[in-house]
# Entry
Amino acid sequence: MTGPTRRVLLVAQVAPPSPLIPARRVAGLAKYLPDQGLEVSVLTSRISGEGEIEGARAVARTSDLMATPLNWRRSQFKALEGSADGSYSKPSRLESVLVPDIAAATWLPFAVTRTLRLVRQSGLDCVITTGPAHSVHLVGLALRRRGIPWIAEFRDGWTFDQPARDFPLRLQRHLDASLERRVATSADALVAVTQPIADDLSRRFDRPVTVLTNAFDPDEVTDGGDNGLLDPDRFSVVHTGRMAYAGRSPVPLLEALRALKRDHSRIAEKLEVVLAGPLSADEEPLVRAADLSDTVRAVGTLDRPRTLQLQQAADALVVLAEGSSRRVATGKLFEYLATDAPILVLGDDSEAARIVAETGAGFATSGSDSNLIASALERLVASPPESPRDRAAVEPYSYPHVARRYAELVEDVVSRWERR
# Structure
């Protein structure tokens, strides 16, 4: 891009070095937006860890009560992100009390105070707030009142397609919806990471919404993976990351494996399913059931390089999209696109299924019918695709491409303010 360097502040509660998926988006944008002539600073929470972020000119890490002894569930958070042993449980009951989310109490006051200080010290041309946590957008509201152009990014729907956000009291629901409307109608531009989220925002608030998906970092793509965790004599289907915390369940997949063992034992003998990532307390006994011990292996949480190597080495990769509805296109999907392994999406009405079909990267089936899932697994084992991925088809889902489009949006938003 040509023209003046734009100073952009990216605000997100979760950022590198956290291993959680939202941190990967911050990492990708911070790394590649400078290539488009943007000077990027990041404001985040200390709950994500410490240190610099590649590409960012500056990183401001604020206090967060979630990272203090006041958070009696810190061990649960560490288990969720995979930085500690053990299983994790369901979200705190406070999720059904605080509107719009817990971060409004634990992090938002620190974030707003630090952001206003940054504006006074160095000035900004644009702020990008990315949620959830949806309360992060209130930082954008505060800055816009002070004349800073603001882009609000939705990685999940706010009230859209979120049964977990069904607050018990009418007053809570009204406040939640009012905050969403205030954000959606006040921001200078809206970004959604999937088309269904964009369609919903556009329909309800009569505003244009730019779709800028999650993506993969091409620098992390290797020529091959370390298959030390996989059985070279079997067809290895791999899932990486969390399942239960996003409302997904491995039960249909496990039942499909039982059906294969019962009805197609020769196919089942050739197959292994490898799960890499933290398990919830509910998932532990399901995944480690004795009758599946020769077919399913949970290898625990791996560091990022080993996770990427495992994905590269897999014969096939699986996305669980059922239970999270059609808006789902999880961050791991885009890492999967960077490999040559076929992708099986369990949830044929999901955004993940659409992307996989569009790129020719695999196929989708029901996420709830174990018989259909068994048939899909049988198809993979019996006739695995041999052709490598079409790199031109997946390039739009890389962070350099997403950064180019983001930079264009930033320039449009800032230029409109300057013309006022």
Observations:
- The first strand starts at residue 6 and ends at 11.
- The chain has two domains: 6-215+398-418, 221-394.
- The chain is about 40% helix and 15% strand.
